[in-house]
Every structure is written in structure tokens, then in C-alpha cells.
Design a protein that fits this description.
8 helices; 2 domains; two-stranded parallel sheet; 53% helix; ArsR-like_HTH; single chain; Arc Repressor Mutant, subunit A; globular; mainly alpha
Amino acid sequence: MTPKDRSHSPLTSAASMRVLAHPTRLTLLSLLRERGPQTAAQLGDIVDEAPGTVSYHLAKLASIDLIEPAVPQSTDKRERWWKATAPLTSWDMAELLDDPEKAAASWALQKSIGQAYAARFSDYIDAAPAMPREWVEAGATGDRVLQLTVDELAALTTELESLVTRYAETSAGRGDSDIETAPVSVMYQAYRRP
């Protein structure tokens, strides 16, 4: 038996996609990936939800293997700690096109993710005036419409993934260095316009 690939958590069922499509669950999974192990109470403080509600959502995420119990970070035996099982979640949208139930679940999940991205970018726009100038100058946002073949679009996607992976590896390799860093959101989209 080969060891489980921990680089990503694959979603293969419509049910698992519907579980993750909930906005609170998307946020909780993102927080566990960004901040490491947390309790329902800690997460509840961040998302402004009661620990019981957060525990319910965490149980749903655990039911589809996106999170798992973590080693306790305190001596309080009543606390239950959770961690993400992988840094990424993936599913193959093209493979789902032949199954109407999976396709519908995938589109619903994609819409929820898009709404979360839009909310996060709106938060950035609101916070940018108070950020240090060098961080604002280093950021970027933009869009272009390119005339590409399907092969060129596939190549662009591969290059984007490779570039982000390189910086993700740099980020992960830092450990507790003295270099000033901050969480940076990277979002990109490349698709044929309808």
C-alpha cells in the first residue's frame, strides 16, 4: 500500500463538493491551512461564530477528509485541536462534465470559492490605505483578454501553477527566519470566456 499523497486533498464525489461549498467551511479550511492547528473556540473568535456551530462545520470537513484531529497545543484535555490534511484541494472539472450531479456540485463549489475570493479582495481594498506603502506598491491586480489556442491556454495554466508552486516552496522553507514576511493571497484565473 502506498502512502497517501499529502500535497492535496482530492474531491471525487458530489457530496464532498457540496460539503465544502458552504462559505463558513471554506473559511475554516483556509484558516487551518494558513494558521496551523486550531480549536473550534479559536476559529469561532476569528469567524464570529459560536464554538458549537464551528464544531459542526469542522465535523463536516473531517467527514470528507479535508481536516483531521491535531496534536493538542495546550494541556487542556477538553480542547479538541484540528488541522488541514493537505495544503490544497483539487478536483478535475473536465472529468465531472459527464456526470450531471457532480458537475452541478462542482459549479456550486466554484461559485462559493469565487464569492470568497471577491470578499477577500474587497477586504484588501478596504485595508490598503492603512498598509505600509511598500506592501501596496509590491502588489498587483489586473486583467487582460488574450487570443489563445487551447494548447496555449494549457501552457499558460502550467506556467502559472509552476510559478506559484516555486513561491509556495520558498514560503514553506522559511521556517522561523528573521525576514519580514506577511500572508500574501495569490489568485489567478485563466479560462475561455463564454
